[in-house]
From TrEMBL:
Organism name: Centaurea solstitialis
Enzyme class name: transferase
Superkingdom field: Eukaryota
Chain intervals with Basic and acidic residues compositional bias: 60-69
Protein name, UniProt field: 16S rRNA (cytosine(967)-C(5))-methyltransferase
Region (Disordered): 60-86
List of catalytic residues: 500
Primary site of residence: cytoplasm
Family matches, as NCBIfam families: PRK14902.1, rsmB
Length: 562
C-alpha cells in the first residue's frame, strides 16, 4: 500500500509539505516501513549501476573490508527481490559520511524528498546500507544515534547551502570545465566537505582526510587527489579569512544574483522577496530558511491524550520542550524527535507533528462540537484531524481530496487517532464536486495547493524544485478552487481560504480577486480567533517566519451574505 501511496505523493508536481510530513510519519507503522523505504530506491537505479561500475574500477584499492552475511534488498530491471549476498563492510569510512553522500545523490538525482530522509528515518537502517552498498560499492557499520544526527545536519545543510557551496567549489577549481564536468558523487563529497568546514566549522584537516578517503574508495585514487587539492585550498583561504565572496554591486539584477549566492536561494525568489518585503526582510527570511528547523507536536485530544500527558512523556524521555503560547494542545521541540518516534508517541496516534502556523488556521475555522465542516483540499489531513479532534465526538468533518493515495493516508491516520467516527472522506475533484453535491455547510475550509514558500526551512530541497513559472499555474488553480469551494457555503456560513505561502499573490491578491467575482462574500476579521500579533490590517491571519519564528501561513475568513 505505501508503495503506491509514495508513488502518488512523488508524482504530484507540488507535493504539499504537510502532505509529506503525514505521509512520512505513516511510514513508521512497522508493516509499511520496509516497502516504503525500498520504494525510495526506485529512481536511483542508474546511480547504482554507475556506482557498481565505479566500484569495480576502484576494487584494486587495499581496503579494510569485513565480509558479513546480512540480508539486503536488491533491485533488478524493475522488480524488487530479497536475496542473501555477502556485504563488503568498510570500517575506514565513517558511516555518517557515506550515508550523507548517498542520500544527497538520491535527493538530487533519484527524486527522493529531503524530509523523507532525515533523522526520523531510524529503523530503516538495513535499507539505508543497501543504498550505500549499491551506490558506493561497499557498506559501513550501522548508524548510531549520533551518526543519524550528523547525517540530518549534513544532508539538510548541504542541500540548503548548495548554491553557495558550488560557488566556492567553482572558485577553487583551476578551470571552470573541471567543475562543469565533475562526476555527481565527487561533487557531493566536495559539497559535504565544504559545508562541514565553512558552515559547521568542523576540524578542517580531519574533514579533508575523511573526504579524500571516501573519494578514493568510492571512486578512484585520482578523485581522492582532486578532493585533497581543492579542499586544502579551501582550508588555507578559511584560515586566512579570505574566502571568495560575491560582491553586492551593480544593478538590481546583479545584486539579487549576489544575494542569491551568499544566502543560497534561487535568484527569482530573492527578486520576489526584495520586491515584496524589502532587502532587509528578504535577507532575514533567507537566514531563517537556512537555519535548522524546529518542530511542534500536537497532543491528540481525540484519543483523550492531553498536553500535560505529552509533557510528562517528553520529560521522561528527557526531550527539552516549550509550551506553545498560541495553542493549548501544542508543544515545541527543537531536538529529540528521534526519541519521540522511538517511544511510539506518533505510531500510537497520541500526538501529531504539526506546525503552530497550521494549527492557527484551524483556530480561524473555529470548529465546535456539533459542527458539520467540509475540508476541500484535505489530504493528508493535518487540519482535518485537528478540526475533528475539536468536535469532541459530535459533528462531522467531510474531507475531500483529488489524490486517492493521500486520502487513504488521511483515513488510516483518522483510524489510528480514533477520529474516524467524525471524519468522512470523499475522493473527488473539488472543481466538479459542487455540481453533484447539493449539501451546503456552515464552515468550509479551502487549504489550497500553493508554492510552500512559507515552509522552506522545513523543506530543505523545495527551494531548488520550485520554479517561478509555477506561480502563475498555482494562482489560476487557487482561483478555480476558491470558486468551487464558495458554492458549498450556506448563507451566513464561513469560507476560510488558507495557504502555507508568504507570497501576497497567492494570499491577499487571491482573496481580493475572489471578492470581485463574488460580491455575496465579505471579509470577517480573524481578530476573535488569533492573537493580535497574527492579525493583518485587512483582517487576515498571517504568520511570518521572520516575525513569529513559525512557518509562514495565511488565512482569510469570508462570510457568505446570501
Ligand atoms: C495544501 S495541501 C492540503 C494539506 C492539508 N489541508 C493538510 O493540512 O494536511 C493541498 C491538497 O489539495 C489537493 N488538491 C489539489 N487539487 C485539488 C482538486 N482539484 N480537488 C481536490 N483536491 C485537490 C492536493 O491533492 C493536496 O492534497
Amino acid at each position: 500500500m505505501p508503495f503506491s501511496l509514495f508513488k502518488k505523493v512523488k508524482k504530484q508536481k507540488n507535493p504539499h509539505p504537510n502532505c509529506l510530513c503525514v505521509f512520512f510519519f505513516l511510514l513508521f507503522i512497522p508493516l509499511n516501513l520496509t516497502i516504503s523505504m525500498a520504494m525510495l530506491s526506485l529512481p536511483s537505479i542508474q546511480v547504482c549501476c554507475l556506482a557498481e561500475k565505479r566500484h569495480k574500477d576502484s576494487s584494486t584499492n587495499s581496503l579494510k573490508f569485513k565480509e558479513s552475511n546480512s540480508r539486503t534488498t536488491n533491485y533488478r530491471k524493475g522488480s524488487f527481490h530479497q536475496e542473501r549476498k555477502p556485504q563488503k563492510v568498510n570500517l575506514e569510512i565513517s558511516p555518517h559520511r557515506a550515508v550523507s553522500a548517498v542520500r544527497l545523490m538520491r535527493i538530487e538525482f533519484g527524486g527522493a524528498f529531503a524530509d523523507l530522509l532525515n533523522e526520523k528515518g531510524k529503523g530503516s537502517g538495513d535499507n539505508e546500507m543497501g543504498y550505500v552498498e549499491r551506490t558506493l560499492g561497499f557498506c559501513t557499520r550501522d548508524l548510531d544515534d549520533r551518526d543519524l544526527r550528523l547525517v540530518t545536519d549534513i544532508v539538510g545543510g548541504t542541500i540548503r547551502w548548495r548554491k553557495y557551496l558550488d560557488y566556492l567549489i567553482l572558485s577553487l577549481c583551476h578551470d571552470p570545465h573541471v567543475f562543469d564536468r565533475m562526476e555527481p558523487l565527487l561533487l557531493q563529497i566536495l559539497r559535504i566537505g565544504f559545508y562541514e568546514i565553512v558552515k559547521l566549522e568542523s576540524p578542517s584537516y580531519a574533514v579533508v582526510d575523511e573526504n579524500v578517503k571516501l573519494a578514493k574508495i568510492a571512486l578512484r585514487p585520482g578523485a581522492g587527489n582532486m578532493v585533497n587539492g581543492i579542499m586544502r585550498k579551501l582550508v588555507l583561504l578559511k584560515e586566512t579569512n579570505s574566502l571568495p565572496s560575491p560582491q553586492l554591486e551593480g544593478d538590481d539584477r546583479a545584486q539579487a544574483r549576489a544575494l542569491a549566492t551568499l544566502y543560497s536561494h534561487p535568484v527569482w525568489m530573492v527578486r520576489r522577496w526584495t520586491k515584496y518585503l524589502g532587502r532587509e526582510e528578504a535577507v532575514k527570511l533567507m537566514v531563517w530558511n537556512n537555519n535548522h528547523p524546529s518542530f511542534s507536536l500536537r497532543a491528540n485530544r481525540g484519543k483523550g491524550f492531553t498536553r500535560s500527558e505529552l509533557v510528562s512523556r517528553l520529560e521522561t524521555l528527557k526531550v527539552p520542550y516549550e509550551l506553545s503560547p498560541h495553542l493549548d494542545d501544542f508543544v515545541r521541540i527543537s531536538i529529540g524527535m528521534q526519541s519521540v518516534i522511538q517511544d511510539g508517541l506518533l505510531k500510537e496516534g497520541l500526538c501529531s507533528v504539526q506546525d503552530e502556523s497550521a494549527g492557527l488556521v484551524v483556530s480561524v475555522v473555529d470548529p465546535q462540537p456539533g459542527d458539520t465542516i467540509i475540508d476541500c483540499c484535505a489530504a493528508p489531513g493535518g487540519k482535518t484531524l485537528f478540526m475533528a479532534a475539536c468536535l469532541n465526538g459530535k459533528g462531522m468533518v467531510t474531507a475531500i481530496d483529488i489524490n486517492k493515495g493521500r486520502l487513504r493516508i488521511l483515513k488510516e491516520t483518522a483510524k489510528l487517532q480514533q477520529l474516524d467516527d467524525v471524519i468522512t472522506t470523499v475522493h473527488d475533484d473539488l472543481r466538479t464536486f459542487p455540481e453533484n453535491n447539493h449539501e451546503a455547510y456552515e464552515k468550509v475550509l479551502l487549504d489550497a495547493p500553493c508554492s510552500g514558500l512559507g515552509v522552506l526551512s522545513k523543506r530543505a530541497d523545495l527551494r531548488w524544485n520550485r520554479k517561478s513559472e509555477d506561480m502563475e499555474e498555482l494562482k489560476s488553480l487557487q482561483d478555480e478552487l476558491l470558486d468551487a469551494a464558495s458554492m458549498l457555503v450556506k448563507p451566513g456560513g464561513v469560507l476560510v481560504y488558507s495557504t502555507c505561502s508568504i507570497d501576497p499573490e497567492e494570499n491577499e491578491e487571491r482573496v481580493a480577486s475572489f471578492l470581485l467575482r463574488h460580491p455575496e462574500y465579505n471579509i470577517d476579521s480573524v481578530e476573535r480567533y488569533v492573537s493580535p500579533e497574527f492579525l493583518t490590517e485587512q483582517g487576515y491571519y498571517f504568520s511570518s517566519p521572520v516575525k513569529h519564528s513559525l512557518d509562514g501561513a495565511f488565512a482569510a475568513r469570508l462570510i457568505r451574505n446570501s
